[in-house]
Amino acid sequence: MSLNRGIGSGQYMTKKIPKNRKFQHVKSRLDTGCSLSKYLEKLEEINKNYRYRKDEIFKRLKVTTFAQLVLQVASVSDLNESEIDGESRGSEDRLSVVSDADLECLSEHANGSPQASPHSGLVDAGDTRDICSSTRSTLLSVINGMGELNMDRNHQKTEKESVSRPELADRPYPDCPYLLLDVRDRDQYDCCHIISAHRFPIAMLSQTMNPYTKEVLEYKNTAGKIIIMYDEDERMASQAATVMCQRGFENLFLLSGGLKVIAQRFPEGMTTGSIPTSCLSSPTSLRAKRSSVSLPAEKRWRFTPDELTKIQEQLEEILIPSNSNSCMSSRASSSSSSSSTSKASSARSRQSSSASGTDSSRGQSSRPWK
């Protein structure tokens, strides 16, 4: 036997384990960390949903980041509106209290009634004139018969506020940090689009005169504001983003994945209308789409509270860390192993007891009857 001969064979390392197609879909629940298979799966998902290129000159924005931005903008606008409403109500209450007191004071002095408060004798005539002159000039003219007092003014103000509030709900968020542009055609936009999205078809970029809207010019290279473009699968949006970046837009972002990724991760709350079938990948969603009635998209600029709660729930499901899943799966596996061992031990005890019982019964049957 020669000494130069190695132990084993080099072919064992290159030998591939045969795969069974029956169990190809079965995957481990334990998170074992980074691996080559996970990296390849991530690359496959990127190539399937996203269209990355090496020579891209525009920036990208994830769908999850956009969802967080929507939630923050909605919460800040609600806080600002509540503060403004509280300040306006407080100022109106103060004005109403002051006007009532001034009316009483002016009525007493205009009628010349000596039945004033017991402390009225301590006040000089000049002081009373100063108090009355500090009040509204319209009230003096009303009491003297030179004008009319509109008693329904407060009622009209409340009616105007009630009418203006739904109008404010239909307007975009004040000082919104993002401008969302849909570069698809009008028919596709009317069928389905993201809430608060403006229609900006890609054909407008080929115009020689006024290719941009008023909103686009307001957001162009403005500090603290960005422009986001999207379509169904990044085919048209990437071209439009490239052209606009070449024309001097520095705060332009492309929504990665477009409606295709939104339909997978945020199927409810983010869009209005019926999602196109090209964006639905799973067969269950396709069946639900066929069974449901297609509704036209509503042109809205704000998200409702129900839609915001749905977006928050779906975002929390996406952003759950993998460590918790691995811990839960390890606990489940340990509990299942302990339960299996307990079941095995109980089964063995039952078998032993049954065996002893059969032996005893056989012994009793072999004995003669007394």
Describe this structure in words.
This protein is 54% helix and 7% strand. It is an alpha/beta fold. Helix 3 (63-111) packs antiparallel against helix 12. The longest helix has 49 residues, at 63-111. The model is unreliable at 113-125, 128-137 and 358-370 (pLDDT under 50).
Question: Which helices and strands appear, and what pairs or packs with what?
Answer:
Elements: H1 11-14, H2 36-49, E1 59-61, H3 63-111, H4 125-133, H5 137-143, H6 153-170, E2 178-182, H7 186-191, E3 192-194, E4 197-199, H8 214-219, E5 226-230, H9 235-246, E6 252-255, H10 258-265, E7 271-273, H11 283-291, H12 305-318, H13 322-366
Helix pairs in contact: 3-12
Please supply descriptive tags for the structure shown above:
alpha/beta; 370 residues; single chain; two-stranded antiparallel sheet; five-stranded parallel β-sheet; disordered C terminus
